[in-house]
Specification:
The protein is α+β, with helices and mostly antiparallel strands. It has three helices and twelve strands.
């Protein structure tokens, strides 16, 4: 009987070791899968902003007969959820050489209302006025300051997803003014169609 109890104790120790190893393996696999699912969900719940690769130029005449050029960029929230704390910056970048190294200098261009608190998503948007789309006016005469030889425009849109709190910076580069600036106005809605004047 003493021999039998020793054998049973050894068997129970072996079974215990096998179940602990099995439980640790299951816990490890479950943890890895839950992390992958979590990061997959976080990847889905982030701001998705679509930007146009064209800048519209609209010639405006005021009541006194003065002619001014109005330049406009367009972007829209392509996320299903709303985005918050949207800030838009537009820089005129120029590269130059200092010794053997390439350096950059920039000038921040003025925009009409470069920051706003809230932009609706695709689910909550009003389909009649498309309040998830933004047409922003550049308060500078682009063709006078941007020649395109060593310069380019750097558009940077920073926003936060309203559900997950994830931030994203959308960057759009405009390299050549001849191919970037088009005469006309942007059509309304989730498109980048240009209406000729």
């Amino acid at each position: 009987m003493n021999f039998l109890s020793v054998v049973l104790e050894n068997k129970s120790e072996i079974l215990f070791k096998e179940t602990v190893t099995y439980d640790l393996l299951i816990a490890l696999i479950t943890g890895v899968l839950s992390c992958l699912i979590f990061f997959g969900i976080l990847r889905v719940f982030k701001p998705k902003i679509k930007t146009c690769n064209v800048i519209c130029k609209n010639v405006v005449t005021d009541k006194l007969g003065n002619i001014t050029n109005r330049y406009c960029i367009k972007f829209y929230n392509n996320s299903f959820s709303d985005i918050e704390n949207v800030s838009v910056d537009l820089f005129l970048m120029e590269d130059y050489f200092h010794g053997t190294a390439k350096n950059y200098k920039y000038k921040k261009l003025n925009l009409a209302q470069p920051e706003f608190k809230y932009l609706t998503g695709r689910i909550n948007r009003n389909k009649e006025i498309y309040d998830n789309c933004v047409q922003m006016v550049i308060l500078e005469d682009l063709e006078k300051i941007w020649n395109g030889s060593r310069e380019w425009l750097h558009l940077q849109i920073d926003s936060t997803h309203s559900k997950s709190g994830r931030k994203k910076v959308k960057i759009q580069l405009y390299k050549d003014p001849n191919n970037t600036i088009k005469i006309g106005k942007f059509d309304s809605g989730e498109n980048f169609n240009i209406i000729k004047n």
